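Good morning C.,

I know you're traveling, so I'll keep this short. The sequence:
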Amino acid sequence: MTVAGASVILYDAECGFCKWSLDKILAWDRAQKLRPVRIQSEEGERLLAEADPEARLDSWHLVTSDGRLFSAGAAAEPLARLLPGGRPLAAIFAAFPGLTERGYRYVADRRDRWARLLRIRANCQVRRR
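The tokens, ready to paste straight into the viewer:
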């Protein structure tokens, strides 16, 4: 059960690496401030209505409890602020947004490889840039 007014974390339900990552984040979220929603669901489509349809599955997304939408590396800082003990990490993400985005992109663009290393089934549609 999640807390009322929780922020929403949107993830690719068909990507094994994405689901593995979500599982780790939700385990960290002991206060249940996050509610997971599949990007491919009706709610996911509604929450991402303003996002380019091509970009929806290109990254994860966070909709904060006050309705703000963050995507990819830009979502790392607000997510970290929600997690127990995450404020120092959030400060680093905020101080180095370009590096955070490049780090996110590096992992996201290779999630099929990370899945193989972690021995999880990926099923990811990775677009090479």
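Safe travels,
E.
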